[in-house]
Specification:
The protein is mostly beta strands and 328 residues long. The protein folds into 2 domains: 6-219, Oxidoreductase, molybdopterin-binding domain (Sulfite Oxidase, Chain A, domain 2); 226-327, Immunoglobulin-like. It is 6% helix and 43% strand. It has 4 helices and 27 strands. It has a 5-stranded mixed β-sheet. Strands 7, 8, 13, 14 and 15 form a 5-stranded antiparallel β-sheet that branches. Strand 17 (210-213) and strand 18 (216-219) form a beta hairpin. The protein is elongated and about 70 Å long. The structure holds ligand MTE and molybdenum atom. Residues 36-41, 82, 84, 128, 130, 141, 170-171, 183-184, 186-189 line the site of the ligand Nc1nc2c(c(=O)[nH]1)N[C@H]1C(S)=C(S)[C@@H](COP(=O)(O)O)O[C@H]1N2. The site of the ligand Nc1nc2c(c(=O)[nH]1)N[C@H]1C(S)=C(S)[C@@H](COP(=O)(O)O)O[C@H]1N2 has 19 residues, from strand 3 and strand 7.
């Protein structure tokens, strides 16, 4: 299938990210070259002059917006961590695809207001414009948001990341961003917005991105508390009795209130200092450490403001560990 002004530049699932993993994440704002890229069906390149967004469903004023229409609307900036939930086929495997960026765009709420969304709308469906196959199914990348989140001030139709226009790989010219929720919800190459009175019925909202729980499935929406050690990394040279720092990032949809670090494989834990957050940014934590010689397993774990913690294992936000060797 081909559509005017767009073509797929690469077909199939793709993940790209820094070779050093989380140890590459040294800066407060993650530069694009260190920020992971994910796509299920391939990458789409869209001629910005051909891009348009259809807004329909339970709205009084269905419309088609072009890029110039969005550019003419008031924009806002929002800083947020951006995290992939990992593979929907292996939802308990921690992948730690994470970064912290500044998005800029038009609030989704402004578009819904302009479209005169009806009071009977309970969900907003959005779809990407690309086509292809993932895990044996050929279907549009369609996601949904409950209306409360869709209207939240931080949810944007983004045109920029870190002060630059979105590249085609990043989902440009326009993508949805849903700060605080896993990356899967932030639809790239967005082409339609539909107001509806129920959840969307496509594979990406029914079969994929739903976690099994004792009380039924739970959509992969809000980001659970998580933390990672950036430094030291496994290959950092460390010397016995020389004071050093263990530091990293902690994040989640809710504010992180405590981070603890272990230098003995989880035998004992100490409180790290944790910085404040801006919008939904990640938060830096740090702890001083004067190591003894020999091998050490370093761990970190965090807790959010309502007391939710990182599980020890078997979860996408399981506790992170780093093995280091301290020389005599
Ligand atoms: N249209 C479309 N949007 C998509 C996806 C996709 O495959 N197609 N992948 C989602 C997933 S799983 C993630 S983690 C983020 C990745 O965004 P990034 O590549 O900018 O990091 O995009 C989301 N939006
Ligand atoms: Mo993802």
């Amino acid at each position: 299938m081909t559509r005017t002004g767009m073509h797929m530049t690469e077909k199939g699932f793709s993940f790209q990210g820094p070779a050093e993993g989380v140890h590459a994440l040294n800066s407060w704002i993650t530069p694009e070259e260190d920020l992971f890229l994910v796509t299920h069906m391939g990458f789409l390149e869209i001629d910005p002059d051909h891009w348009h967004l259809d807004v329909d469903g339970l709205v009084g004023n269905p419309m088609r917006l072009r890029l110039t229409d969005l550019q003419a609307m008031p924009q806002r900036e929002y800083m947020s961590f951006h995290e992939c939930a990992g593979s929907p086929l292996t939802p308990t495997v921690a992948k730690r695809r994470i970064g912290n960026v500044v998005w800029k765009g038009v609030p989704l709420s402004a578009i819904l207001e302009r479209a005169k969304m009806g009071s009977d709308a309970s969900h907003i469906w959005t779809s990407g414009l690309e086509w292809g196959e993932y895990a044996g199914v050929e279907e549009t990348y369609q996601k949904d948001l409950p209306i409360e989140k869709a209207l939240a001030e931080e949810v944007l139709l983004a045109l920029e990341i870190n002060g630059r226009p979105l590249t085609p790989e990043r989902g440009g010219p326009v993508r949805l961003v849903v700060p605080g929720w896993y990356g899967t919800n932030s639809v790239k190459w967005v082409g339609s917005i539909t107001a509806a009175n129920r959840r969307a019925s496509g594979v990406y909202t029914t079969r994929f991105y739903n976690d099994p729980t004792p009380s039924g499935v739970k959509p992969v929406w809000t980001v659970a508390p998580e933390s990672v050690i950036v430094s030291p990394s496994p290959d950092d040279p460390l010397s016995a009795e020389v004071p050093t720092k263990i530091w990293g990032w902690a994040w989640g949809d809710r504010h992180i209130s405590t981070v603890e670090v272990s230098v003995d494989g989880g035998g004992s834990w100490q409180r790290a200092t944790v910085d404040a957050r801006e919008d939904r940014s990640w938060q830096r934590f740090e702890m001083s450490w004067t190591p003894e010689p020999g091998p050490h397993v370093l761990l970190c774990r965090c807790k959010n403001e309502v007391g939710e913690e990182q599980p020890a294992s078997d979860a996408r936000n399981a506790v992170h560990s780093v093995q280091v060797q301290v020389d005599f």
